[in-house]
Amino acid sequence: MAIYRLEIKPVTRSSGRSATSAAAYRAGERIRDERTGALYNHSQRRDVLHKEILLPSSVEQVSSRMDWARDRATLWNAAEKAERRSDSRVAREYLVSLPPELSPEERVTLARTFSREIADRYSVAVDLAVHAPRPEGDPRNFHAHLLATTREVTPDGLGPKTGIDRDREALSELGLPTGREEFANLRARWAELTNGALREANVEARVDHRSLEAQGIDREPQARLPWGAYKAERRGERSELAERIREHHHERWAARRRERQNAPAQSAERSAGVQRERPESRPEPPLAQDMDARRQQAVRDWLKHRQDQVRDGQGHERSPPLSMDEIRERAVAAWRALQARGAESPPSAESRHGRDAERDRGDTEQARDTPSLGDEFSR
After folding, report:
1. Secondary structure of the chain in the HEC alphabet?
2. How far is the C-alpha of 100 from the C-alpha of 185, rounded, in Å?
3. Among the four 9, 71, 111, 224, which has the fewest Cβ within 10 Å?
4. How many domains does the chain have?
5. Which pLDDT belongs to residue 373?
6. What is the pTM of this model?
7. Rounded to whole angstroms, how far apart are CA atoms 178 and 198?
8. Is 279 contained in some domain?
9. What are the residue ranges in the chain where pLDDT is below 50?
């Protein structure tokens, strides 16, 4: 049966990844990163069934000026050079499963259709790579990697951030949907395209992007296992990691089900508790004479505290605390004394040099980026 899968995730420097490495691995090519000098060579791969770079339809009219974007190494080196932060998103990946019920040509057509829509929707370049199942893996695991730029593609190079990689403020100003809403739209669109391809191929299987709960299916979802644990179990071996993951997943699912089942009863109890509450159970405000007594006691406590400040721990007299006027007068006198001693004279060359060096170091530290957590729907 056809399986729905669409994963949308960023390629970020904070996670140690690069656009050049991701492109070389997915396309099975050899690419050198001009920014770091690192060489990524995956030309030995034999499972890449199809690869191409799709550009927005708006820039295909100037085909001669877009040759730089059709070259894989040039495109992704440009994406790396366009970002200056150490935690920048240099690319965005869309990982989709292709129905095994389709023919090889139909799977490529489906992946190209989705890639074309993403390129036109966000005005980005999409590097498409269709992969065959691994020999030791599930033979139905046909899938495609869509590696897209996070910036607009123009004849003059990469432009500003676009699509779901814009800041939240920019999306709000332009009246565009938020990242979460856009993810939901993309998931629904991929399901629509997949079902359309299955229908044209006269295949009865269909996919659904909604959760089991939204579909009305009362079934526990399957736990997601790491690739190593999955392979071990396929070989007939026992995986303690897979067992722990399944046990923890089952406990969390059972807890969520109990919460959903108890939610109506808890809501009814809260509503009944509000109705049972009587006005006489609330504490009455203090009487006026009680408030006057409290104010007088507060004044006596404050006077005693001031008297204790005048005496030290051994009972000896000491200077009372200064008032705000006395503190202000002493500060003005100290400032005038500094002016009289020439404290406002110009600094020496050595002090100026040290001050400028310290300021430059501060600017450098401020400009240096630090890694930050991303989102599910990060920027």
Report:
1. CCCCCEEEEEEEHHHCCCHHHHHHHHHCCEEECCCCCCEEECCCCCCEEEEEEECCHHHHHHHHHHHHHHCHHHHHHHHHHHCCCCCCEEEEEEEEEECCCCCHHHHHHHHHHHHHHHHHHHCCCEEEEEECCCCCCCCCCEEEEEEECCEEEECCEEEEECHHHCCHHHHHHCCCCCHHHHHHHHHHHHHHHHHHHHHHCCCCCCCCCCCCCCCCCCCCCCCCCCHHHHHHHHCCCCCHHHHHHHHHHHHHHHHHHHHHHHHHHHHHHHHHHHHHCCHHHCCCCCCHHHHHHHHHHHHHHHHHHHHHHHECCCCCECCCCCCHHHHHHHHHHHHHHHHHCCCCCCCCHHHHHHHHHHHHHHHHHHHCCCCCCCCCCCC
2. 24
3. 224
4. 1
5. 32
6. 0.64
7. 30
8. no
9. 284-288, 343-346, 359-379
Query: Where residue 184 sits, what CATH number does that domain have?
Result: 3.30.930.30
> Rounded to an integer, what distance in angstroms lies between the CA atom of residue 294 and that of residue 274?
33
Residues in the chain: 379
Answer yes or no: is 361 within a domain: no
Looking up tokens 């300021």 gives 359
